[in-house]
Amino acid sequence: MDHITNRAIIPHIDLKGGGLTVAGVSKTYEAKGDATEVLRDISFKVGEKEIVGVVGRSGCGKSTLLKLIAGLDRDYVGHIGLDDNEVTGPGIERGVVFQEPRLFPWLTVEQNVAISIHETKIPEHEKRELVTSNLALVGLTGFEKKFPHQISGGMAQRAALARALTSQPRILLLDEPFAALDALTKMQLQDEVIRIWERRRMSIVLITHDIDEAIHLCDRIIVMSPRPGEIKSVTEVDIPRPRPRVGSGSTAIRARLMSDLGLF
Ligand SMILES: Nc1ncnc2c1ncn2[C@@H]1O[C@H](COP(=O)(O)OP(=O)(O)OP(=O)(O)O)[C@@H](O)[C@H]1O
Ligand SMILES: [Mg+2]
Q1: How far does the centroid of ligand 1 lie from the alpha carbon of residue 227, in Å?
Q2: SMART domains, alphabetically (predicted)?
Q3: Do 256 and 189 belong together in one domain?
Q4: Which member of 57, 92, 101, 219 lies 3.0 to 4.6 Å from 167 by CB, making a disulfide possible if both were Cys?
Q5: Whose CA is nearest to atom 25 of ligand 1?
Q6: Is residue 115 domain-shared with residue 225, that is, in the same domain?
Q7: Average pLDDT, whole number, for the chain?
Q8: For residue range 68-88, what is the model confidence (pLDDT) as tens digits?
């Protein structure tokens, strides 16, 4: 495709085959005659089974980018496709987890999870099996009948993850999913995401503020520059899994990311 202009930054981009393609995406919010350019010419690819992180300062357009990939906003320039299909709206092949769990308070945990496949033609007993198995996968067996106010923040975020997983998505879109959690719960959930990914092998886009989280989870990390958000750099993380939380392999990557973020 001709409209990719930053090939120099991402020489490996290949628009054919499976996975997510974001090509030449620009986004401007317009309100009351006021235009805010938020994303400029963003291009990258997330191959099948790859985990790609997006880091950048607050306001650089990370959530906006994720909303576009999720199909929640169609008002942009460029192309977004999954497995050669153009993204034209929300779809069950893309599971989304936001920073806050966004559970319906009047529904139980299992009802909240079942919502993601509510409108599919899957037979009822299979729906129940999917809900049960995905709740088990995130460690919520025994909490199916609880309401959101009866579970902890970490458990609520597990439920949100189960909801995203239940539709058996080709790609998980995670928008700072652990940012509101305490450090220990956060690390535990990061390791669970890796465990789930090793079993399911879906692609993942992880938006995060947390450099260490990105290094721990991702195959590749995109740094975005602010206002308007552009791709500043792409860093491969070639540390074999399981990855240690601390180690010399991550020090150089951390330094590079900090520098690209303008932090020293
Ligand atoms: N619906 C909207 N209308 C107008 N401007 C918006 C809208 N949503 C976001 N913006 C603006 O777009 C810019 C990017 O917002 P976005 O939420 O994508 O940033 P972010 O990188 O996710 O930030 P954070 O790290 O704080 O979550 C901000 O300047 C924000 O004010
Ligand atoms: Mg955001």
Answers
A1: 10
A2: AAA
A3: yes
A4: 92
A5: 58
A6: no
A7: 91
A8: 999 999 999 999 999 989 999
